[in-house]
Amino acid sequence: MSSERFMAMAADESQKNLLTNEGGPFGAVIVKKDKVVGCGHNQVLLKHDPTCHAEIQAIRNACENLKTHDLSDCTIYTSCYPCPMCLSAIIWANIKIAYYGNTASDAANIGFRDDFIYNFIEDKCKDSTTLELKQLARSETIKAFELFQKKSDKTIY
């Protein structure tokens, strides 16, 4: 199948929400060796979960289907430029190629704004009106890290 066909499948996923109102009009598919191994569409409203974006759902679906957390040999096709959370998830999944249809500006034009998150990150997370980050009780939380570091059977991912 062609890249255009996989993008059409992502677009089809995005259009599901026009009927169901499960979330915004976003869809994604993940492909491995010309076969769709994961798909998803935005389900934020249905699941009452702000992380249920199309890309996250597709990653979860692909990982479950392939029984792995490493999608390094996969490509994602998404109907819109991924938000910062989804970009991070794509990187964590080791996906190296992400095709997108609509731009972040296109999403902003229909009411989905990611710019304030990008601005927060670019400002080194110092804008307390967006989020206050406060370190607390490191002497307690570091203990698990120290024990993990000593483990001989640990897996780094």
Automatic annotation (TrEMBL):
Listed Pfam families: dCMP_cyt_deam_1
Single GO term (MF): zinc ion binding
Keywords: Hydrolase, Metal-binding, Zinc
Family matches, as InterPro entries: APOBEC/CMP_deaminase_Zn-bd, CMP_dCMP_dom, Cytidine_deaminase-like
Domain CMP/dCMP-type deaminase: 1-123
One biological process term in Gene Ontology: purine nucleoside catabolic process
Protein family per UniProt: Belongs to the cytidine and deoxycytidylate deaminase family.
Protein name: Nucleoside deaminase
